[in-house]
Amino acid sequence: MKPIIRGMLHDHIDGSAALGDIILDLYKMAGKKFPFASIEAWRKYFKNPHENIVTKFGTVTSVLQTDDALTLAGYAYGRARAREGFTYVEGRFAPQYHMAGGLSLVGAVDALRTGLMMAEARYNIRIMPIVCIGREADPDTGVAIAKTVLHYDGGVALDLACDEGGHPPEKHLRAFALTFGSKVRRTCHAGEWVAQDPRKTYRTRLLWNVRTAVRVLKCHRVGHAIPLCDDDELVREIVDTGVGIEGCPLSNFACGSVEDLRTLRIRELLDRGVLYTLNADDDLFLPPMPEVIAATDAAYNFTEAEVAALEKNIFRSAFDPTIRALAR
Ligand SMILES: [Zn+2]
Question: pTM of the prediction?
């Protein structure tokens, strides 16, 4: 059957297709020349796996350094997701990459959040912002970002993003620990991105980070968690505690982390009661949600009950407490 899913939890605003709607405006606002022949050429460059990821994102973040630019990005993101039929999304971004023009961490988050709220006021969509610590930052910067998140008293969630091999979750324990006992919801990219060699320990190293995210950083959700099914005890634990999984199957496939979507064992996770969800991750250069859903459905041939669970799990593990309460 064709699943329809109206929510998304793992969605990078600065890696979202919505930026294609405004990228020329952003360059104009920054007084810079757009360095590509067309938007299509820019997206093609983004899709090239041989180009450096940091340089790629530099074409976006370099023109997202002012209040106005970030507000426009937030608005364009919310507008695009609403037009695509989403009613609830959680959009994430890392303010540390948006301070070169003099913005503070709070200033950057405020500016983007203003845009998201403008989109909410105009369209039928609720957007929960998630602020990421780009994990290559030093632990003190992580702490400053966590303090910024605390400032919103649960209105903004916390994430840890980027290369987990070089910067495992425990590096930012101090930042995450600051939010323990507060209203702040936590997630962490874990079990996604470590060196593939040595191959023998690849899945164990991924799994180690998932365990750290759940048990040490006390995350309410985990992004990716590719090898989760390998650890029965951890699966039981996250089912018991209601930790959600932000699955991004086509992102994992595109990055070469899984060769077959079936190795994610999504059916087994759903059967066992894991709050597993489907997400696009970065649809500026990765397949958009309709393709994620179609490809995953083609791999698993989901039943009606499984489709219902995949959608309901989004709302059951939502970081907005009102949305979560309604889904119970
Ligand atoms: Zn991600």
Answer: 0.97
- Domain locations in the chain? 7-326
Lowest mean per-residue pLDDT among 29-33, 53-57, 186-190, 249-253: 53-57
Report the C-alpha dihedral over residues 219, 220, 225, 231, rounded to 10 degrees: 90
Q: Residue 150 C-alpha to ligand 1 middle, in angstroms? A: 22
Going from the Cα of 41 to the center of ligand 1, the distance in angstroms, rounded, reads 23
Question: Which tens digit of pLDDT belongs to each residue from 251-272?
Answer: 999 988 999 999 999 999 999 9
For ligand 1, the distance from its centroid to the CA atom of residue 14, given in whole angstroms, is 11
Q: In this predicted structure, what is the pLDDT of residue 215? A: 98
Tokens representing 142 are: 């992580």
33 CA → ligand 1 middle, Å: 29
Return the CATH fold of 7-326.
TIM Barrel (3.20.20)
Sequence-separated (6 or more) residues with CB below 8 Å from residue 268: 229
**Å from CA of 309 to ligand 1 middle:** 22
